[in-house]
Amino acid sequence: MAAFLSLGVASAAGTRAGTQITNQASAAYRDSTGTRLDANSNQVSTLVKQVGGVTISPDGTPSAPGQQQQAVPGAEVVFPYTLTNTGNGTDSFLVDTMVDSSVTNTVAPATRVVYIDANGDGILQPGERVALPQSGGKSVFQNVPADSPVKFFVVLQVPANATSVNKVITQPTAASTFDASKTDGVSGSTNYAQVNVVQDAVLSVSKSVVSTTTESNGDLTVVYRVQSTNTGTQAASNVILADDIISAASTLPTGSVVVAGSAAISPTTGTVTYPNTDGDSNASDQVQAVFGSVAPGQSVQLTFTVTIPASAAPTSGQNPYSNVATVTYTGSTGTTTTTSSNTADVTKAATAAVAIGPNGDPLGAADTTVGAAYTTAEGLTVTPDNADTQTVASLAAGSSVTFAQSVRNTGNSTDVFDFTVALSDLPAGTTVDLLRDGVPLPDSDGDGVPDSGPLAPGQTAVIQVRVRPPAQGGADANGGSVVVTATSSVDTSKKDTTTNRIGTVTAPSVSIGDTSGNNGGTPATPANQSVLPGAQAVFPMEVGNNGAQPDNYNLSGTVTFPTSSGNVPVTVVYYKDLDGDGVLDPNELAAGPITNTGTIQPGQEIKLLAVVNTPDSALPGPVTVTQTAQSPVTNTSGTDTNNTVTVLQEYDVALTPDRSGTTTSPGTALYEHQLRNEGNTSFGPADLSFTGTPAGATSGWTYLYSFDGTTFFASIGAAFSDAAARNLLGSVSPATLDPGEQVTLSVKVNVPAGAPTESVNQLSLTAATTPASPATGAVLRDPTGNPARVTDTTRVVGGKLAINKSVDNCGVLLSCNTVTSGADAFPGEYLRYTLNARNLSTETLTEVVLRDTVPANTVLAGVTGPTNGFYRVAGGSWTAVATAPVAQTAGTLVEFAVDTNSNGVIDVNETSLSSGADVTFTMTVRVN
């Protein structure tokens, strides 16, 4: 397997539990007619499982605590902490506190309790002293979403008998209830804080956000308040409240400034300064207030305003902008102490915006850029304008045009854009496919709408919009349009539209007639054939495609002959006139009749021989031959009624005509034949004998026969006897088949399951005249040795190219030595997608290229294929599968091909797949 040599492991749990990772592949190829075609695989899906994870911050050890405060004996001390669910699903956590006694002179707190910081400001409010649910003596933090923080307090009371040499050292611990092995602090010293007991001044400090305002220019204005209270027993001198908003203790973005002159203090006896002493390039990121003395129980306060620039990235409650203030003071013994406040958090809301436009011009009419004209995959020219529209001048009904659209995230946060389409003035039945690199767009966020996948601010992506008017829709001189709308997932009110215009839709056209210099012959040219009863009349014919796209046509023709017992319809049988000489040559007859012309390119024609088998009992006179060529794709048809057969002037039975058809496995083909008395003596069951002989693919195939289309029998003879017994054989004497009368023989061919595609079964049916009491001199035109005969040819079909896709969970092994097919996956596990393409047709397919995309929430990890297999990424250079791919993110196109001629490169016509051949590649991804 070609694979990454190393893959980084994410620190968080990654993709959310319950996320469906869906993936679909496609292939492009050219069939034997030169027509470019597409095929899509089935879609496979993998469910991401939940994993647990938890962290508590800030960190600290007994010897190097993460937080320190001073307190007098009997005082309450509050330490703020943050618990974060680092798993990928909602979880609950058991939170406890531990006391350390490894450091000299440590004492246990008199009490310790945990409270939730409900408003997240880091300051314990009276209303937040709410007892938490308990389980086993531990507090329960319930239903914490993935990647979400919970701010909380550990509240301690210093023992009343503690002395100034004592310390109180504690830490909170947490354990996941989903996965009890996921903990923080339970088995290590990671979250310790320390209280130093003093008999002196003790100043606590807190910081809070008073207000936030988003200005018209996008700036965020924040008012902060810093407050310090002397909870000690002595006065503090030289008290300094300070804040450096751009520092290691702050996550405020670059460009944030303290608004000059905004600071206010209480009491007003202090002084305010705006120093520039931190050595950075921001001269406006510091503020401080100095108070000469703060008595026990007295509080001092500093309020100031900060501007966060509009260009700063948006944040969320899970990842806010944070800031910490400090208080520095001197105690009665001359010792200077600095204490940090809690973190004060603010969020900056995301702003959503999107632009979608013609190829190369996502802003459309909003700027002066005009995208360049380009050629589509179908070879059509599309011309963009500066009015948010791009146009293809003309499109043939039944064909497609693939427009390219540029979409750009013009907001300030990563966004996923949903795409919807609206059709205007196009024929009913027009279909639209949304693609990226030729592969159907995924639904990466699971809302049921195809989307762009995550786009970073300013990022542009290109999607394709493939439009196909129905083949049967006819012409539309005025054309129509498809309006594409891109809608933000961050703010669904933010959307943009663009228009794809089709100038005109042209209709298909066919001509059938006698041979001439015109394409498809000339229907107005009459032709006559004079024949004896029972003889053949042969008409040279032409069928021409006068449309703008490849097409094929079903052939049908009828002639009605009058006889002594009524009119007799005869079906025209068609053969290819291979040499164009207008004569049914032996090799052309041996090639067999056709019922369809096969694909005819625009402006081309096929030469045919229309054969009319005149009934033996036909009366003299001219009769008209009606012939039709009708497309099963576009429904267009042409008719010729100008040819005639003139009949110039007997025991006989006819069984007509040969039939051919296709069906699937398992499946059923139903054919109808005419059994006709063309003699002058009635037939009963004793006068006819029948056989049914299969050839070709016969294993498991079965056959049934009926003369009423409802009641079927295992033999034709039994069906005929039943029809006679039920008076179904005619109108004059319904128990017998009288001269000139005919009945319909229905043949049901049942194809077994598992029959190979393209296998062919030929069922030969015969009817022989074996009269019980023939008159003297009677002529048996269809004796046992030369019976009337028809053949039903049934071919098992699928599509031309079948694409099958499956997924295996490889666990944590990129080599995929052990797999669980279709299994759900954890983040960090590998998924191996297997793509198989098989040629179901009788022709050789060329230019077969398999396409797949890296699914959302995954990264490309490896590829495999045949020894002469190649792959390329995002339309780049072809690389042998033995060479490891470079890391590729979700949405990247990966294509596969085979060096069929083994020359070491992928040529224009590769991959080539002969009839029945297949090729298999795999693509392995890692779940984020």
Automatic annotation (TrEMBL):
Which residue intervals make up region (Disordered)? 767-789
Under the heading InterPro entries, the entry gives:
Chlamydia_OmcB, DUF11_rpt, EF_Hand_1_Ca_BS, OmcB-like_DUF11
Task: Specify residue ranges for compositional bias: Low complexity.
Answer: 767-776
Where does the DUF11 domain lie? 822-906
Query: Mind telling me which PANTHER family this protein's record contains?
Result: CONSERVED REPEAT DOMAIN PROTEIN, LARGE CYSTEINE-RICH PERIPLASMIC PROTEIN OMCB
What is the official name of this protein in its record?
A: DUF11 domain-containing protein
